[in-house]
Amino acid sequence: MSIRRKWFRLINIGGIRWSLHPLLAVLMLLSIMTGYIGELLTLFVLVFVHELGHAAAANGFGWKVLEIKLLPFGGVAELEEKPGAPSYEEAVIALAGPLQNLWMAGAAWALGAAGLMNPQWSDYLIHANLLLLAFNMLPIYPLDGGRLLRYICGMQLNYYATLRFSAWTGMIFSVLMIVFALLPQLEHSGGIQANLLAVGLFLFAANFTYRKQIPFLFMRFLMTRERGSRSKIRAGSRARPIVVTGLHPVWTTARLFLRDHYHLVYVMEDRGRIVGVLPEQRVVEGYLSGDRAVSDLLR
Prior knowledge:
Layout: E1 8-13, E2 16-20, H1 22-34, H2 37-61, E3 64-71, E4 74-80, H3 87-113, H4 119-136, H5 144-154, H6 159-186, H7 194-212, H8 214-223, H9 225-235, E5 240-245, H10 250-254, E6 263-268, E7 274-279, H11 280-289
Helix pairs in contact: 1-2, 2-3, 2-4, 3-4, 3-5, 5-6, 6-7
């Protein structure tokens, strides 16, 4: 266990660290005391297989899986993105986890229908898998649905706007989860749903931190674009134009970049005359060297 990080280190498989949130350890202890250890261990196995799906897909694309954290509501895979990787790879990796729950639910149904599994146990496995599937598809980062939301938004929005939109969406949905957990108490119709409240607070904190890290994430995005840009140029892909005036700041120009496109920046006068064309690498260099106008990069 790391005291600083407050996580229980479990095992290391193939260079991937597996760790356990202390709240899940407490729930496991309570389950032993109350006789529900079988149900919790089953849920633990379902989450484990779910995360193995993410890890297998990530390794298949050449992404590095740093750590898989098991939490009371599921798991979170920490990935080191492959520089220049297309966004569809992130979408496939995100879907690989829920697909495990889908086939496990289908297998439980088939075994129950064939009489090879106790009907009650079959129903429990089906409902547990579908619950994990539905929860992980919520559009809240770092859940799978939050990662898919980033992919979908990235098809229309620039990368910077995508980061902001996904962070704010995650915080809004987390607040709704917290309100829903407190609703019975506010309406005097029951007690607080403690599990849902804890999950909502955890996800809100994660997305609040994620929003604060957007400048760093965007800087990393710019610094890793060169490798992807070189491959697109060698392949002869079509560039996506960006049109700005010479007085346009470099930093706002860089924020117009889309993740999966190579850009040429056309610098235009008010009367519509093009005074220069900048490759995106030049804009990135200008962004990293300090705030200035786009026209300064033409000199």
